[in-house]
Amino acid sequence: MPALARWPGKIPARTETLKTISTLDVLPTLLSIVNETHNMGNVDGEDVSEILFQTTHSSRSCSSRMDCVDDRRVLYFWRDGFQDGPLPSPFGRFDVASAKIGRHKFWFWTKSAHYNPDIEVHHDPPLIFDVFADPAEAFPLDPNDFLEEIEIITTLVKEHKHNITYGQPYTIFRNSEYIPCSNITNDCRISRPR
Question: In whole angstroms, how far apart are CA 72 and each of 69, 82, 102, 119?
Fold first, then answer.
């Protein structure tokens, strides 16, 4: 998905990058900008201010935009709504449905929508899409052309799930401290003793 950022005097005008960033990067990046990284704690995402401010430059020249895609960051796409799981319906199980590395996205599970009644479908081998050539993810690639990549991404997903130390995401717990709101009478944004 494309994104735009504007900060006159800070973000160079008319620059672009194909580096992978996520909405999860907003909080650590903002904390870094205001020099509050000591308050970051255990959050998902990365400080992407170097990408935003173009403070690191590749020495490599690119003859086309696609030549500059060498990003190896992995993004994991979690979802809930699986039939089997410890949480009550409609939440069920929370799991990694897909993962993206570079220009390829690997789908291990598909379902029409989070809480629709249809049962999720497991894909082994995963469905693979080139998200630059096929941004709608409409034309799966032949998994036989990606056997090594499938093995690598499957291992990375297992390691990622194994290394989660903070439990289920806050959206599952429905922790009121993390629910955006503008009306404090609805019991949000109220300081609570820790």
Answer: 9, 29, 5, 32
